[in-house]
Here is the input.
Amino acid sequence: MNPTAKPLSNGHCRVCSAKIAPFMSFGRMPIANGFLRPDETGNEYFFELAPAFCESCGMFQLLEQPQPEKMFHEQYAFYSSTSRYMQAHFEVFALSVINTVLAERKDPFVVELGSNDGIMLRHFKARGVRHLGIEPSANVAEVARTQGISTISAFFDHKLADGIAAEHGRADAILAANVMCHIPDLPGVAAGVQRLLKPDGVFIFEDPYLGDMIAKTSYDQIYDEHVFIFSANSVRCAFEPFALELIDVMPQITHGGSMRYTLAPKGSRQVSIKVNEQLAKEAALGLDRAETYHRFKANCENSRDALMRTLERLRGQEKRVVGYGATSKSTTVINYCGMTPEHVEFISDTTPIKQGRLSPGAHIPVKPYGEFTKRYPDYALLFAWNHAAEIREKEAGFVSAGGRWIVYVPEVAIVA
Ligand SMILES: [Zn+2]
Here is the structure.
């Protein structure tokens, strides 16, 4: 999110500067959301996707990241509001802030980092709450503004925080959803939050959760944009130098397992018992130990081998396999496993901008959803596994026509 941040951490933890090294590599990887026109395959950009774990502060992170301008640009076309499920999720999130944090406050002010098309802020606007969205992607920010949601197109840091505080006053609540894990300069954002927040304000954010990723071997959470995968422990450590204390945690089912973290100026609020409970769970799961990540590496390799054995077998039987959902996450799976259009005929996706393009790296064609329903394949490879319940309900017709799903989280399996 911050264009001035270095894509390389030079072998040091991005949070605490301890010397760290990758514990595994997913190999040569294209930009996860870099769907190509057929004439663009010649000069595709690749980098090495290699996560590291800092034993000193517990942060799971990428040491090498593509230049931000390769990932986030005008064509960056992820509009949060396209998912009905996510709409409902953010309404509940917004209402919980309105009914708890903001209750009985006079003229409260809410700031959202990475506010996208206003999927969450619209609920504050609807109730007349002063709000400001900060969305670096200009075309997405424009969508929010046309709906009357106050939004600026900028990158958040301490300077912007000071500017906002001078113009609007300090914030009662700062919110972020699926944004913090994208920002390489986490300390820079933490410094901004510290300056923008009122002494009795709260900072609430949610992101994919490391504990779920390790437990489910859902390694597709690891891609260029996700520079961090957080745990309660690593969040606590990262914000401590900025006098922000982790006071609450709340697991979420979104994105295949996320965690909502609430932070407040140190000493301003009571720390929930759930924080210590979560830290204890993380210790029991071994999230603070290097050996856990060596085991995760072996689990990723086993998952990859099992999935490719399945796809090779089906190819040998001349079965038709179609991918379901051209997600950013699928780029890691497709390229790490070494899938080709020989394994997956095409990927079905409802996003118009992706249709007619090729998947990053493997160049599997992306086709409109109608191509999937027109002639059902024998098998659908469920790349959008985090929406499995919603999708399998919607596609009951595919299964009654004899189709089967191939899933790979938490284990490779063929299911009805
Ligand atoms: Zn560290």
In short: Residues 84 and 390 are 10 Å apart (CA to CA). The longest helix spans residues 290-316. The radius of gyration is 21 Å.
